[in-house]
Amino acid sequence: MNPEPAGRPGRPDPDELRRQFAEEARAERPDLALLCLLLGAVADPALDVNGIDAAQIELDELAGRLPYGVRGGRAWASALAELLGERCGFAGSSADYQRLESSLLHEVLRRRRGLPILLSVVWIEVARRAGAPVYGVALPGHFVVGFGDPAERVLADPFDGGRPMTGQDAELLVAGATGEPLEESMLVPARPLEIVLRILNNIRAWAAARPERTDVALWAVDLSLLLPSHPARLRYERAQLLVQSGQFLRGAAEMEEYADVVDGVEPAAAEAIRRRARAARSLLN
Fold this sequence. Notes:
By secondary structure, the chain is of the alpha+beta class. It has helices spanning 14-25, 32-43, 49-64, 73-87, 105-111, 116-129, 167-178, 192-208, 214-226, 234-244, 248-262, 267-282; strands spanning 134-139, 142-147, 154-157, 163-165, 189-190. Helix 1 packs antiparallel against helix 2, helix 9 (214-226) packs antiparallel against helix 10 and helix 11 (248-262) packs antiparallel against helix 12 (267-282). The longest helix has 17 residues, at 192-208.
């Protein structure tokens, strides 16, 4: 599925991009790369149909550079590390956490730099195209990739150029992020929509630290709400962002709608939200 032109040639309008994002998110087998690229097109007006196609072609081309006849999870992990980490230079650094581009797939392909989860998306998509048994692993605080049977725990860290991860490495990483031991549930392969929601959560966190970027927070919440499964509280977050951006009436109305939803479960919380809605309306006076 490719975005259809709207407005200027090759550039879908924001509503069309959201429609296509929602449609792909509800597909029987959602295309992770396409969802990330549609997300990128919402974020970056310069990314048009040709740019989306070029990114997909680059992933295909990278997959074509992997050796033929690779067998076994460890061999695949080594082949990806040699190609993407060593030859192509895909990796990350602490500075990448400060850049919105680090969460946009087309920019990660261009810069060869990004957050752990976006670098993992590159690995997953390149490996998948080459027929590798690959999956994402959403460890707390750090996303990595796995190869072969998940029970084998063949893990690699794309953020570190594809460094192989032992079970002890994963345990130390989780302990450092949460103070808790590694649990088997943390190693379950992440589904495409779970990966996309985590990317959007990262973008929301980036925008939350920058009050002047309410626009970014809003589109990230809007896309999150288009996913079939998402936290209900995002509706309240969206209402708050509308108020912060000066859309007091819309924000107040959405707060009241959310209060009606939670009223049957948490009436005290619903009343507090209604008070905030009244306060938002008073800002017009």
